[in-house]
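Incident log, structure service

09:12 report received: a user says their structure output differs between two submissions of the same chain.
09:20 pulled the input from the user's history:
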Amino acid sequence: MFTGIVAELGSVEATEPINGGARLVIGAASTLEGLKVGDSVAVNGVCLTVVANTEQTFSVQVVDESLERSALGSLGEGSPVNLERPLAADGRFDGHIVQGHVDGVGVIVSIDDEGDASRVRITIPPGLDRYVVEKGSITVDGTSLTITAVSEPGAIDPWFEIVLIPHTLAVTVFGSVTTGSMVNLEVDVLAKYVERMLGAQR
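09:34 re-ran on a clean worker, output below:
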C-alpha cells in the first residue's frame, strides 16, 4: 500500500521493448536505499516490481496490461517520474490509501497560474467521474491531491481540477507537465467499496 506522498523525483534512463511489455531503467538516489530485487515501487502511481538494480538505477518490467491502462507507455529517456516506496507498518500516513492500481488515464487540458500556485484541469474517463467529488482525494501520477472543482454530473467530457502549491511543483513531475500531457489516475478506493456495498443491499 502507498499513500501518494512522492518520496523522490526520479528519471527514466532507458526504455527497452521486451516480449509482452517493456523494461524501464530508472535513475534515483534515496529510493535505492535498501531496495532489493522483488521489492515494489510506485512509478507515476503504478505499482511495479524491481527486477534489477545498480548503485544509481533500478529496473522494472511493465507488462502490456499496465502499458494499455496507464500513461507509462508515453515515457521516454529523460522523462521525470514520481517515486514512492510502500508504506512501512510504522510509517506516517500523510496522504490517503493508494493501491498503485491505475483506474484510467487523464489528459491535462489547462494550467493556470494562481499566484505561486497552479490550477490544473484534467479530463477523467467517463464512468470514473462518479468517484470524484469536490474536496475528495485522487491520485494523479502517484501524487495524493485534493480535488478543488469537478464537472457537473453527467457531463459528456468530465473533468476535475487540482491546485498545486510551489512545493508540489518543485518535487514532482508536475513541474514539467504541459497541456496535453497524459497522467495516471487512481480514484479513492473507499468510494468504490461503498458503491459495491450499497449495490449489494438493493
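09:41 both user submissions now match this output. Likely a transient worker issue. Closing.
09:42 reviewer note: Helices lie at 64-69, 166-171, 189-200. The chain is about 10% helix and 40% strand.
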